[in-house]
Structure formats: structure tokens, C-alpha cells
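Continued from yesterday's entry.
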Amino acid sequence: MLKHPFLNEEFIPDFMWFVGQFDVYDREETCGAMLEAYNPDDEQDRLELIRKYGLDLECLSYRHKYVLLSFLKEKLDDPTVDFQGVFDIEEDCAGSWPRGEWYNLKDPKGFFRDIYLLAKEKWKEDIQKAVIEDPSNW
């Protein structure tokens, strides 16, 4: 069983691994100020956001990255997935996005598609390493 990188429990892939670093709650003056310059609906801004911040997951092993990428591919292929719902923040939840556009993206699925394509490119060597292993042994 693949373990969570910080907890002694099973690693469960989730969309927040890809967008959690954009949550600026209690970091509005630092991270928020830096990220609010980017519009997630603008293609060039979105790609730069993902490249600079969205895939900065050094805490994850090549196995975690493989599992996350497989999870994301599966979700992108599922027409019933509510990608905008990932960006919804419940009233009782401590969380906030750097700009208002995050709460209602023009193309939330496209945002995750861009993450998938860029992650495949950036994590190519990690994914190749994981593919030759048997995940049941993790």
C-alpha cells in the first residue's frame, strides 16, 4: 500500500494535490499577493501558474506522481465529474482563492487538462520509473 507522504495511512489521490497550493487562506499578504497577478481564465497565465506553482510537489515520490496522474486521467475521461466543484469552498471551511475568477472558472476541466498535460511532461522520468514497477507491491 502506498503511504501518504506525511501520514501513516494510505495515499488517496485527490484534486487538491494539484490546486491546494493556490489556496491563500491566511497567506493573502504573501502567496495571495503573488498569485493574484495571474488570471486562471487566461491561457498564458494559467500555464505559467501551473508550471511555477501547480506542479511543485517535491514531497511526492515518483509513485505518488504516477498515482496522481492516473487519477487525473481517469477523472478527465469521466464526463460526470464536476471540476468546478473542486474550487467551491464551503462556508465553514477555512480557504480562499487569490482571485474571484477561481470561484467560477470559464473552463475548469480545461484547467485540469492543462495540469495533466504539463505534469506528464514535467514528471515524465518519474512516470517512466513507476510504469516498470508493479503497483500492487507498493
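--- second protein ---
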Amino acid sequence: MNAPDQPIIPVLLSGGVGSRLWPLSCPAHPKPFLTLPDGDSLLVKTLQRALLIQPNAHLMNVTNRELYFQTKDTVRKVVDVVPDTDGQQHYVLEPCARNTAAAIVASALRVQALYSDQAVMLVMPSDHLIEHEASFSEAVRIAYDLATEGQLVAFGIPPKSAEVGFGYIKAAVATGSPFSAVERFVEKPDLPTAQAYVASGEYLWNAGIFCLTPSTLLSEMQRYAPELVEAVQCAVRQGESGHSATGSCLELDAGAFTQVPSISIDHALFEHTDKSCVVPCDLGWRDIGTWQAWANLWEADAQCNQVHGQVQLLDTHNTFIHSPNALTAAVGVKDLIIVNTDEALLIAHKDAQPALGQLLTQLTHKRS
């Protein structure tokens, strides 16, 4: 991208646990740090993508305070290979997860304080893969211009299938335009509804990537979720901050932050605002949010099995096995997910992914 009039600050969200990939993803080693087949992590991929947009390495990282040093080490390794930067890496540390609305508002308050309320934030989850980097850069260029005009910009992916784990955006018709007004946001519909959306050709997957300024975001959030903004402001004011030659770190106050409503930015803002638009873009985008998405990172054999680690198969079909530290053998099974870690063993039918949340709730209650 050419140098913009207002700085563009990538905001990397990596505070979630990634519970849908339990037991591989856990609080001490969540999804952004998981190693991909090429040896990189999802966080590394996101950082590399951020540096395409912000070559001078001005970055904002929102993560759990327990993951600060692990995150900082990863950022340093990626940024250090980029020559001639005057980078500033900033951190917002959450004492607990409060969903994306709180994380984005907190980062907007920091960008406002450190840069300006007209700086452009590019909000990116750290658990996505994007294959088409040139298309991504072009979509960001379009979104940047819209954000400087006071729009809240979402990135929409042409759907390849009916997925119940994604949000959807209904775009108003905009012939010949690189962006569209938004008619509605829909959060994770059921399967028949998702099938109808895809068949209509009127909906896009919501990539969870947003481009906006602190000024527009905070103004609209004050309009639709003032109690959330007030609670986050309190956590920021009462938090502890420090600065160094390479950036800053803000640890949000735990007592105040636990009072913040836990709600997604989609529900809190985008479902209500009249200042949103969407940039349709085919990015080769993948949300690594389910075991099937994770399994698809590995090549399948002739029986549609995908494996990672020490695995022996006999008469096994359409099964994913992750077993890096011990031998796992499967005989006469099909359509399974088998994840064998040092901490736990998961055996599930591939259709059972939605029930994993219920399983984790039971495990949490059992341990508490």
C-alpha cells in the first residue's frame, strides 16, 4: 500500500482460548500459537499479513495477560526480520475474555491515545488464514478510504458452502462498485437458513475483519452500547500502563473489566448501525475454528483420512487423527476426530463438533 494520510494500525485479536479445538487448544496454549503444517503458527501468519499493510511495524496486540510474554516473543521474532522499521508494538492485556466488542473498544481507546482518533484500525482475528495476499491488500486499500470517510467497514467472503459456524452479511446491490451497503448482519444461522442464504446469492460470509477509525467506532458504540463503552473506559483508566522505546503495554483493570458485558461486535454494533458497508473479496480465506477446518490443513489419503503425528491405520475412512507424542492406531472406524495429547484424549464423530461446547461446559463444572 502507498503511504496513507492517516496511519493504519493493524489490531490483532488473540485473546480467545479456541475452545472448539480442545484439547489441542487450551488456555495455556491457545489456537493462535498452534503449529501449522509449514511450521508457522496462526499468529505468525497474521503478523506477517499485518506487516504487508504496515511495513513500519506499528501494531496493536490484544491478548490475555497470561499470554503476554509468549505473544511478545512471537511478535519480536516476526518483526525483527523486517529491516529499517521504526516500529512500535503496543499491547492491551485482558484479565479475562469479554468477546470482540470489548477488545475492539479497548484497542480503539489505545489507538486514539497513542496516534489519533482518525487513525485507521485494521482489526484482524489471529485464527484465520488468507492465501491471496494481493487481493487482501487491495481490499484493505478500498476499506481504508471508506473508513476515513466515516464508515465501519466489514470484509465479506463469497460463500463456498452453507456453514453454520460463520456469520453472514446481506449486501445491498451495488453494480460495478468495489463495496456495498449492508442490509443486515446475521450471526451463525441454522443449516436450512444458511443454505437459503447461499442459494440466494445475496449473502457473504462475515470474515470478522473490520476497518474503522476510533472516532467512528466510539461514536457509534456510545449510541448503541454506552454501558459497554463506559465499562471499558473504566478498565482502561484504572489499568496499569508502561512505555518503552519499542512500544507500550496496558493491562486492563481486572475488577472493572469483569463488569464489561460479554458480546460480539456484530451484536453490539453492526446489527444496529447505519454507518456500515462491506467490501466483497475472495481472499482464499479460512477460519480455523473447527476440527474439520484444522484437519483440512493436512493432505488426505486415498481413504480420505488426514493425520498428523504417529498414526497407524487399518480399514479406516474419513477420519482425522492428531497424535504427535504417542502412537495412535485406528482399526475399522470412519468419520471420526481423534486427538491424542499429553493432557487429554478426544474421540468424536465429525458431526459432533457443535456438541463440543457442551462437553467443555461439563468438564469445567467437574473441575471447579
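The two ends are 50 Å apart (CA to CA). The chain has two domains: 8-152+206-287, 291-367. Will compare against the first tomorrow.
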